[in-house]
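HOLO CASE FILE
Compound: flavin mononucleotide
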Amino acid sequence: MTSAGLAARLKSGLRLPVMAGPMFIASTANLVIAQCNAGIIGAMPALNPRSTEALDKDLARIAASVGTQPWCVNLVAHKSNERLAPDLDVVLKHKVPIVVLALAADPGLVRELQANGSLVFQDVIRNRHAQKCAEMGVDGIIAVAAGAGGHTGDQSPFALVGEIREWWDGLLLLAGCIANGRGILAAEALGADLAYIGSPFLASSEANTQPGFKAMLVEGSAKDVLVTSCFTGVKASFLKPSLVENGLDPDNLVPATSGGAININNGGANSKAWRDIWSAGQGIGAIKSAGPAAEWLDWLAGDYAAARRSMGLAQ
Ligand SMILES: Cc1cc2nc3c(=O)[nH]c(=O)nc-3n(C[C@H](O)[C@H](O)[C@H](O)COP(=O)(O)O)c2cc1C
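Model generated. Tokens follow.
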């Protein structure tokens, strides 16, 4: 299938041109099911269920609950992920429709997943990295621009998507602060096929996030988000009020002593950075309430339709 054909095929089954970003700890099987049943591509990290057996059960439940709607699992393809081999077996067994690879993926893994029927996407923060992913034969590239939640990019979406679209005519997704209808439309105008949305789903009832986290998202806005490499050795976005609640001064953080090494074991050596110090992107100003993912996606669909109307575009 041509690249344009893949984008058209994926979009034709969706209510909105949106894929959810998988989120460590937060994304549950119930969230994936709610996202898919509300008409977008749902996603979760393979490491969120606490064991490979639990992952197996979750994937079976998702597959049985979403019909033909595409959904996604994120695999951390890094040598420090001790669950990679068994989790991969489970992902292959369930023929997960889309796999997002993170960190040091190898072409053999890409081919193995594709031969088993999965589409393989990889997220990038630089044009050069996108070129390497294209050489590995991925089906989709996720451009993570400045302002994103989790491990964020630092380039403007105008620059990042602009550079990638000069040479890549395959499926392209854009991430970073997309949280309303105009944001989705802007991603499409830049040349992305799908918007990739994470942070707003942290406020979903189905997300595994504490009530205090949800409240902080509803109350917060871009000014409350700090980008630092102090916790994981890689630039990531965190909510300043959660730093303060953990006795830290956002203006005087001490860099990670690990030398920036990424270690994924036990859900990440730095899992405190995700469990107690809360990550979210700059788009949280658009989160007005916490509630079921389907309710937020109903609002998003209306807001997207309004954005299209305001630009004189077909509904
Ligand atoms: C709390 C949190 C945890 C995340 N964990 C992961 C993860 O485990 N794997 C991954 O590929 N991306 C992860 N991300 C990134 C998201 O998948 C997505 O790229 C990002 O949220 C998009 O930006 P946005 O939050 O501004 O919408 C995480 C993001 C957040 C906010």
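CASE NOTES: The two ends are 27 Å apart (CA to CA). The chain has one domain: 3-208+283-310.
CLOSED: yes
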